């Protein structure tokens, strides 16, 4: 009934979870539930949008060790949340067979819009439409305002939801940089790639992309320094036996041998646009 009821009443309710959980009525201001537990309930329901969620399941998101009164507390939080959403009749946040369902239509949740934009970017990359791929990936990344499901990071289940999306974000970021490099924007992305490497020091693909960008820009000594930094980081964090990838090694050999150009070893990755 929820999505249909919304259409009948001419109302639009949108949600964001790629950062602090928020909701928005009819294009108005974005709002947050006032109490932390109500924010957690909303985020947990949105992690399972359009699916019935049991009280026990909600408790896994809200507490590591649920109190004896957990079931009653969840009922109270849901009632209060409905009040904040202006949905005391339960048209959108519904009760179904003693479970709770939040109805989310097409385009009404940022996670869905993010995954759609990433899919479009991947399709464009496969079609060698590097400019289109870069635009789609950048649009997807622009939807993020912080950590995914930020309000749920206090529980193991909530952290799992967030970590899975964080990984998708990193893959989209790498794909965006790869598409930008394929468009010949190596100088433009060096600053962003440098910041990304510092933020995610164990993300080896980012080092590889930075080496590509620096090499194409003629900054060979800096590219070698990035490779050396990668080697030191892997050794310090993962142990003396861990070495940079075959791709990173091949890239640095090409740079040091002065055979580096637009058709370098990292010019194409599976599912990602090639360099020009």
Automatic annotation (TrEMBL):
InterPro entries: AfsR-DnrI-RedD_regulator, BTAD, OmpR/PhoB-type_DNA-bd, Sig_transdc_resp-reg_C-effctor, TPR-like_helical_dom_sf, WH-like_DNA-bd_sf. Keywords: DNA-binding, Transcription, Transcription regulation. Coiled coil: none annotated. Residues 109-256 form the Bacterial transcriptional activator domain. It comes from the Bacteria. One of its GO terms (molecular function) is DNA binding. GO terms for biological process: phosphorelay signal transduction system; regulation of DNA-templated transcription. SUPFAM superfamilies: C-terminal effector domain of the bipartite response regulators, TPR-like. Residues 31-102 form the OmpR/PhoB-type domain. The keyword DNA-binding applies. Belongs to the AfsR/DnrI/RedD regulatory family. This is DNA-binding transcriptional activator of the SARP family. It comes from Allokutzneria albata.
